[in-house]
Prior knowledge:
Layout: E1 4-16, E2 29-41, E3 45-47, E4 50-55, H1 59-62, E5 77-78, H2 79-82, H3 89-101, E6 109-117, E7 120-124
Parallel strand pairs: 1-5
Antiparallel strand pairs: 1-2, 2-6, 3-4, 6-7
The structure holds ligand LPXRUNBV and zinc ion.
Protein name: 6-carboxy-5,6,7,8-tetrahydropterin synthase
EC number: 4.-.-.-
Family: Belongs to the PTPS family. QueD subfamily.
Amino acid sequence: xxxxxxxxxxxxxxxxxxxxxxxxxxxxxxxxxxxxxxxxxxxxxxxxxxxxxxxxxxxxxxxxxxxxxxxxxxxxxxxxxxxxxxxxxxxxxxxxxxxxxxxxxxxxxxxxxxxxxxxxxxxxxxxxx
Length: 129
Ligand SMILES: Nc1nc2c(c(=O)[nH]1)N=C([C@H](O)[C@H](O)COP(=O)(O)OP(=O)(O)OP(=O)(O)O)CN2
Ligand SMILES: [Zn+2]
């Protein structure tokens, strides 16, 4: 079966505090988050800017979170104000996954990796989707 896998990586800077955390991470502080998204599909699709079936999805749709919060992204935001869950790296990855899924065609398998620091990262996918 033909398989295409897109890969993109981007960064955003944001502040957060982990609610309920008994330690310094419970105080407001910032990170330069790095994100990698892979998008795998067995078929190609049209996109907002291309009406023929020649893309898994537009790379632009995978990189929405890199935009400023005034444009619907997460850059230079306070994550506690932008996402409806406690903003651990795990929950940020899950949020980016779900938001991205809502923006791309059906039938694409996503994996979202979020680095909170150079040495700490999390991968999120959902085999049930
Ligand atoms: N599983 C998770 N653990 C922690 C998360 C998280 O999102 N998921 N987040 C934090 C804090 O946000 C913190 O900013 C990062 O903590 P840490 O890696 O400890 O950062 P430091 O670079 O300051 O490391 P030190 O070992 O404290 O020097 C914590 N845990
Ligand atoms: Zn933190």
